[in-house]
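Hello forum,

I keep getting stuck at the same step: I have a sequence, I want structure tokens, and every attempt I make locally crashes halfway through. Rather than fight my setup again tonight, could one of you with a working pipeline run this one for me? It's a single chain of 155 residues.
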Amino acid sequence: MKRPFETWILVILLVLLAANAFYGGISFILEPDGSLLKINPAWLEKSPFTNFLIPGILLLLFMGVLPFIAIIGLFSKKKPGFISALNCLPEKRWGWTYALYSGIVTNIWIIVQQLFTSYFILQPVIAAVGMLIIITSLLPRIQKYFTTETNHISD
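Reply #2:
Ran it on my machine without issues. Output:
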């Protein structure tokens, strides 16, 4: 089965998410007071954090590294040992599952962020990217392509 065109849309969405998270996460790690991103530390008043260091690390890992791993998995034909252990849908290739995880984690992140911080314009944009990742991952052609029974995939 040939790789569906929608796979490229999924990859673009994951790249956008990961690039944004790498930029934000690294900025928060380098300057935990939020000054690199010009974010007011008062935004953390309702949160359990005193600065942006831990949120920056979490942002980098869950919304930067996770989508990056998903992108690798969308193109990998190898069965990784430890990564596939976290694949709760073993009938699907691990890259697809990690892409779906990325969309779910993104929307959970935005919901939690809205509970603890002030509104800013990137929240609905990132939430939309997360929803589009979920929707694209669940398209029938994408699901069929990434089902392990169709691992005789050719590009």
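The first helix runs from residue 6 to 30. If your local run keeps crashing, start a new thread with the error log.
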